[in-house]
Amino acid sequence: MVLDRPKQPLQLRDAPKPKPGRGQLLVRVAACAVCRTDLHVVDDELPDPKLPLIPGHQIVGYVEEIGPGIPSLFAIGDRVGIPWLGWTDGECAYCRSHRENLCDRARFTGYTIDGGYAEYAVADARFCFHLPDRYNDVEVAPLLCAGLIGYRSYRKTGDARRLGIYGFGNAAHLIAQIALYEKRDLFVFTRPGDVATQQAAKELGALWAGGSDEMPPEKLDAAIIFASVGPLVPMALRALAKGGIVVCGGIHMTDIPSFPYADLWGERVITSVANLTRRDGEEFFDLAPRVPVQTKTETFPLEQANTALDRFRAGELKDTAVLTIAE
Length: 327
Prior knowledge:
Layout: E1 24-33, H1 36-42, E2 59-66, E3 79-82, E4 85-87, H2 93-96, E5 107-108, E6 120-124, E7 129-130, H3 137-140, H4 146-155, E8 162-166, H5 170-181, E9 185-190, H6 195-204, E10 208-211, E11 220-225, H7 232-239, E12 240-248, H8 261-264, E13 269-272, H9 278-287, E14 297-301, H10 305-313, E15 320-324
Parallel strand pairs: 8-9, 8-11, 9-10, 11-12, 12-13, 14-15
Antiparallel strand pairs: 1-2, 1-6, 1-15, 2-3, 3-7, 4-5
């Protein structure tokens, strides 16, 4: 499924089977979860995508061919996950200081590299993950972005005991399970009036759930904003105790409105999360099966990718959409 130009439907198209180059794996795709970032790319909210482009960066597949120059980390038939971060130069100041997620020359799966809305994908072996056996192909797919980026956002909150989550979508649902496993007090903020989602959060284990226009019953030590809504930033700041942190977990967000300095004072912090590192993936895939983190999915055949994206855009998906690719 190919994006020729932003703001247009994807096109179902035959293409030559790709060949792996040096350091690359050829992966037969079994499943690819649909992410909000895919919508941002398709809807022209992220600049300069590769065009034409095969989207998709939550890829689960099986190694079919191994390019030259790869250590014996993978074998033919191995199941692998291909995430958003697809390549870094390994040489810049960021890469050399364990911050490869900030590499200026980084390439991204399904954005500047062809992704997983296809039968086959080629990926840099350095950035592929072995996946926990506990999960089947569909179950594990959402963990490759909603899980990984969410985990990096969560770790930014340190040892915060009272954690607020703004926007209770896919990433929030996954990370809430880890927070509860680690005995955090969880406060969930949804669209005002979304009683059903608030009730679901309470059933999962949240101490409190309410609208994003409400204040929690006690001050928060940290808040993660998963919704791409800039005005939530000053609202979250006002909910923080002194020394607290607001973590913006998305790659795209609408403009943040101005707010009084008093809301930031008291050594409160606002930070963003950019991409992921391989260490994030290793830690997360070690932890997830122990919780165990559970995903909720709705499957679509590859040729219905536009339907999945349209329903996501309209807010009609209750669970994570996962494209399945028939053999």
